[in-house]
């Protein structure tokens, strides 16, 4: 039978994708991520898992994205996307890890059989997988490993080409909802642009256009895709000036540019020379994150990160919900431990919204946001979106305004449900969301920034021998292991006014991340580097102790 699994065929294909010895792979914050030359066998096996997942879910189309997002160009990665565009169900991450670590062809077949039996999978069901990749030079070879894995299990394969990560999430949902009441849109790149552009024009209609927005595209896939989106929107509605848009020259991706560089370094990206009153934003390498920034009268760099976007979006949506008379719809915000303390205070005390804190990773934020009628979730690093529940969608679609003002607010809410990517954080969609709000409010970036002042904060990376010895609790705000380290961090924190610091292992890079905030810039930097030094000394630091600002 065409769809049944042929184990000899899998073994024969697997011979060409052997697992390297002595490597332990882990499905991390956003899938597998590491040096690209270690990923061939992993990607082959992720193809196999995608097929099994599709068979398990009644032949629904599963998405697979080959990208390493914000990581340096020599890295790559892969993640699976579930049918409605959400991240792979967490219980299946363990299967991904098991498959990736099966050493021989026989081990691989054993793991496949285990997954099938544990999940009661009907082997004869057809399977369908859509995949895409970003612009990394290692992409094409990894795609062919993926295709080998998919073919070994006779899946229906849809090649979506070079795309942003959120476009792959979008199209996965489109395929699975086509022709249903929940149809998410046309399953094409063109369909994506049209949906966003139409919604954007509806929200800004009648409002004067803002000054141009400079976009640092991290020399990644966001550059050509933003250019395409801008064409659909039209220059009369939004004027975009792209910088760092060279996605074909090797070595440039994410190099001294992009959202992660700007957020971590708290400075302008390479090639960006904006002046007072200019407006700018940075995407990351696969365009799923965005941060905004500007320079003040005195040339000081000012960052508007994911926390600020959450505040802006939350405030706008709350106003619309109130004006529309939809008080029955509750709005909530989800953050992580990286959220600036001032942002949480602003959300809770000024906007009066409930705020939840969850571990890092869009998958955690997304699930928590689903608990609200309208769930706004943003990581400080610029990764986030707004989710509308079925209840909210139905209400917004069906309600009729009693006054012109109410009707106008309802129309805007309706357009927002199309403008905002409901599957995952999306730099292009988030850019339009921010631009739509600022256009409506006729605000400058400085006016937006005035909602609250960030506590000075600093992120430091520490390289250690084994980051997996770090175990956390309380939404990653406390270390459980190595034993005793948290007490020493607490002691340091207590010496600084408004001090806060936490340590966690990264799930996308081979480092431990240290975050600190305090009342002044000087104190914050000292605290961050003292904690980083502590981690380095007590937990196997290698390759030089971080010591700036000490
Ligand atoms: C990924 C995840 C984000 C996470 C980031 C950093 O982003 O999707 O949710 O915040 O990694 O994670 P960590 O601190 O564990 O390395 P991206 O943009 O790289 O896909």
UniProtKB/TrEMBL annotation:
Job of this protein: Catalyzes the conversion of GlcNAc-6-P into GlcNAc-1-P during the synthesis of uridine diphosphate/UDP-GlcNAc, which is a biosynthetic precursor of chitin and also supplies the amino sugars for N-linked oligosaccharides of glycoproteins.
Residue stretches making up the Alpha-D-phosphohexomutase C-terminal domain: 459-532
The Alpha-D-phosphohexomutase alpha/beta/alpha domain, residue ranges: 62-93, 122-179
Entry annotated with the keyword Magnesium: yes
UniProt: Mg(2+) binding residues: 69, 284, 286, 288
Residues engaged in binding substrate: 379-381, 504-508, 513
PROSITE patterns documented for this protein: PGM_PMM
UniProt keyword terms in alphabetical order: Carbohydrate metabolism, Isomerase, Magnesium, Metal-binding, Phosphoprotein
Xref: InterPro entries: A-D-PHexomutase_a/b/a-I (IPR005844), A-D-PHexomutase_a/b/a-I/II/III (IPR016055), A-D-PHexomutase_C (IPR005843), A-D-PHexomutase_C_sf (IPR036900), A-D-PHexomutase_CS (IPR016066), AMG1_II (IPR049023), AMG1_III (IPR049022), PAGM (IPR016657)
CDD domains documented for this protein: PGM3
Protein known as: Phosphoacetylglucosamine mutase
Stated family: Belongs to the phosphohexose mutase family.
EC top class named in words: isomerase
Active-site residues annotated for this sequence: 69
Any GO BP annotation: carbohydrate metabolic process
EC number of this enzyme: 5.4.2.3
Free-text cofactor note: Binds 1 Mg(2+) ion per subunit.
GO molecular function: magnesium ion binding; phosphoacetylglucosamine mutase activity
